Amino acid sequence: MAEKNGSLPPEYDVNAKWDACLDLTVRRFVYSSLGGAFAGLLFFRSPVTRWASIALGAGIGIGSAYTDCSRSFDAPSSSSANLAAPKDTTETSPVSQAAEE
């Protein structure tokens, strides 16, 4: 086998992206399930609605983790995904034009 001369750039390190996504998914699943359990205990008396609030929280956590993970895999690199093009400040919106008048 050939030896590695260096580490991969972050945009090509798929294992690191998977590790980060799994960590994010587990954390959001647990935290949002706990939030749903707390809300269920606070607002509902029936066990069915309490379990439903836990399931809703878990679904929200998994959905938000999926969205963030899909963005990280679709991004060309981690450094260029965080950098946005500078906005042109010479243009003014209709709201700011009306405020100036």
From TrEMBL:
Q: Where in this protein does the record put region Disordered?
A: 72-101
Compositional bias segments (type: Polar residues): 91-101
Q: Low complexity bias: where?
A: 72-86
Subcellular localization(s) per the UniProt record: Mitochondrion inner membrane
GO terms for cellular component: MICOS complex
InterPro entries assigned to the protein according to its UniProt record, in alphabetical order: Mic10
Q: What domain of life is recorded for the organism?
A: Eukaryota
Give the keywords, sorted. Membrane, Mitochondrion, Mitochondrion inner membrane, Transmembrane, Transmembrane helix
Q: How does it sit in the membrane?
A: Single-pass membrane protein
Q: Does the keyword Ribonucleoprotein apply?
A: no
Annotated family: Belongs to the MICOS complex subunit Mic10 family.
Describe the task this protein carries out.
Component of the MICOS complex, a large protein complex of the mitochondrial inner membrane that plays crucial roles in the maintenance of crista junctions, inner membrane architecture, and formation of contact sites to the outer membrane.
What name goes with this protein? MICOS complex subunit Mic10
Q: Which organism is it from?
A: Arabidopsis lyrata subsp. lyrata
